[in-house]
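Changelog entry: the BTB domain-containing protein record was regenerated in this release. Current contents:
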Amino acid sequence: MSITLNVSGKIFKVSRDVLCRSELFNGMLADCEIDNEIVISRSAKLFEHIYAYLVDDKYPYPQKYHSELDYYLIPYEFDSLYNANKEIKADISQLMKNQCNVMQEIMVLTLTRETEHRKCMHDNCDMEPYEGHLLCWRHHEQCCYSDNCYNTCDKRIKVNQAYCDKHVLHYFKV
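Regenerated structure tokens:
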């Protein structure tokens, strides 16, 4: 059902359902039918942003006008509304984690197919690895990373891995 709003002289035909997402309009329209238009003495320009946000809460609502959200009693979380980087950072973090997992899988498949490893992947270890694994019993949960200065990584890894997530790319650079 459509409702006619007159916001400072500008006429808006809006959906009642969308409008009722605002607590102000929800309370106003709860128990009555509106035959004529509703007149509001607020900025029509800002109401366009308000309505867009009511339609889609992912709408990039202008921060400098957040007081209008308060006026119309529209609930919002300030941090999630204005900190788009938070979501982007979370997405990037997840993508990096996925990339590490894929790299680990590629490494395991590549090494297993290429050589059916007869030697532990850990530097200076000549022991045979567990069957189907890349490391021997002595190194089976240790990251294989070491630099030219004999610095090693002390992170624990899963049984079917040779490098921790931080160092998995080291294998591909070697």
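The helical segments are 16-19, 23-29, 44-55, 66-71, 78-82, 84-115, 168-173.
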